[in-house]
Amino acid sequence: MRRLRGVVVPFALLVLASCSTAGIPEAPGSGAVLVVGDSVCTVSTLGDEVVEGVTVITERFECETTSSDRRTSGVEVFPEIVSRISDPSTGGTWTADDITLTNDGGVWRGTGHGAFDLRGRLPFAEGVSPFNYGEVTYLGEGGYDGLRLHIYISGPNEQAGLAGWIQPAE
């Protein structure tokens, strides 16, 4: 078998160059401020139904969020998270609109989406169901006007780890 050295890298660059970047958050620039923390949440189920063989669950999350930057600590509300279980043995996806994170300095308002694992496959998530992964992008209001907050979420419904950044909104 003949090896094609030097072909792999140009092919990989060609594939990467042809990928769309729509919907991918802008990488944090030099003015970005790192944010890490967690959210402790109370979850209320608002309803569930089966639509075309997919279980759709609607929930409300109310969280106390604590982070390394006081601007991103406060009461966080996901008024309606819609989860779709595409495969009961695996998991599904979630979406949320009109999310708010509020404190004395202002309000962050955003939307989010992600996926969840119903089996807890990763070693630190073993036996935890559901285990959520996702991202939320907020725009600041009030004292945070002109800022964007981008947060990645990982954890079970009741407590999630957070990591992300604050940067000027453009």
Measured distance between first and last alpha carbons = 52 Å
How many helices? The count is 1
Output the radius of gyration.
19 Å
Order of helices and strands: HEEEEEEEE
Strand content: over 45%
Layout of strands and helices, then pairs:
Elements: H1 8-18, E1 33-51, E2 54-67, E3 74-87, E4 91-103, E5 106-117, E6 131-142, E7 147-156, E8 159-168
Antiparallel strand pairs: 1-2, 1-8, 2-3, 3-4, 4-5, 5-6, 6-7, 7-8
Q: What does this protein structure show overall?
A:
- With 170 residues, the protein is mainly beta.
- The protein has one domain: AOC barrel-like, CATH 2.40.350.
- It contains one helix and eight strands.
- The protein has an eight-stranded antiparallel barrel with strand order 1-2-3-4-5-6-7-8.
- It starts with 7 loop residues before the first helix and ends with a strand.
Keywords:
8 strands, AOC barrel-like, 170 residues, eight-stranded antiparallel beta barrel, mainly beta
Gist of the model:
With 170 residues, the protein is mainly beta.
